[in-house]
Amino acid sequence: MLLFCFTQKYSACFLSKILFRTATRKSCAKTSFYGSRLLHRRHLSQNKGLQSVYAQNDRFIPLCSNPSASDLAKLQKFLDMHPSIFVLTGAGLSTESGIPDYRSEGVGLYATSPNRPVQYVDFLKSSQIRQRYWARNYIGWPRFSSFQPNRCHYILSDWERKGRIHWLVTQNVDALHYKAGSQRVTELHGSTHRVLCLSCNYRITRHAFQTMIDEANRNWSLDIPTVMADRPDGDVDLDSDVIKEFVVPPCPSCGGILKPEVTFFGDNVPKTVVHEVLEKMFQADAVLVLGSSLEGAGNFRPGESKGGEESNGKLPHKAILQE
């Protein structure tokens, strides 16, 4: 079987053009892996029209050069040859919707802030860390939940309706694929739109939990300063003095600890989810990776190959979840 990995960084506007032109054709006999870093990026052309499309959210998009005709032809050929694909999407797919990622040079959280995501073990053991997390999340939620899908989300949704996508797995927790209309989706790291009790598995929507927080903090929010910084998981940066009076509601069913139904750093993706993803992947005839380097924490890695090179080799019998 053919293993193909491509790791260039492209602007979403170029990706979407190629996706729109791709037609459903008969599958070839070989199985391919297309591991691409087709991230949403600000390109360097002088095309003012394309620049204006993404101007509103381009502060989170690192610079990159235009894709070459040869590179686009490789992608087009790959898509033409495989009518039923398994798609894996990462943070790069949502940056042009206005959601920053963690690792992008110059614009990601790690490059612009000394703060780091909360670790799962710390969230469990420290009530102060949970208080800080939920206070920031509470203030950031109205904006984070209002983000809308961009063109690539809608293209993938359209592909699903046309039968081109066997299954889509996303590392993102923003629910933008669902907002765009996709249904055949597995959220590998969960979703910020759901809240889970760690003791009794009671579940509530994030919007409903926002109302619970409102009721528990009727006066607290009046003292919140307006200076805030966006974070990839929906939080904002707040001064520690502001957080001290914040009240975190307990589980309404058992009084336990509530957390977003997402995989925190240091936590593990549930085995049932891993098995589901593996099953869906090997039912497809090819894998397309969008908006992920396949190098970060929690990445689902269906295969190994050197970037930009073709190699003959078998896809592994199992994929790897790197935590």
TrEMBL record:
Keywords: Metal-binding, NAD, Transferase, Zinc
UniProt xrefs under InterPro entries: DHS-like_NAD/FAD-binding_dom (IPR029035), NAD-dep_sirtuin_deacylases (IPR050134), Sirtuin (IPR003000), Sirtuin_cat_small_dom_sf (IPR026591), Ssirtuin_cat_dom (IPR026590)
Disordered: region residues: 299-323
Residues reported to bind Zn(2+): 197, 200, 251, 254
Basic and acidic residues compositional bias, start-end: 303-312
Gene Ontology CC entries for this record: mitochondrial matrix
UniProt key word Metal-binding: yes
Domain of life: Eukaryota
Domain Deacetylase sirtuin-type: 62-323
Catalytic residue positions: 189
One example GO MF annotation: NAD+ binding
Record's protein name: NAD-dependent protein deacylase
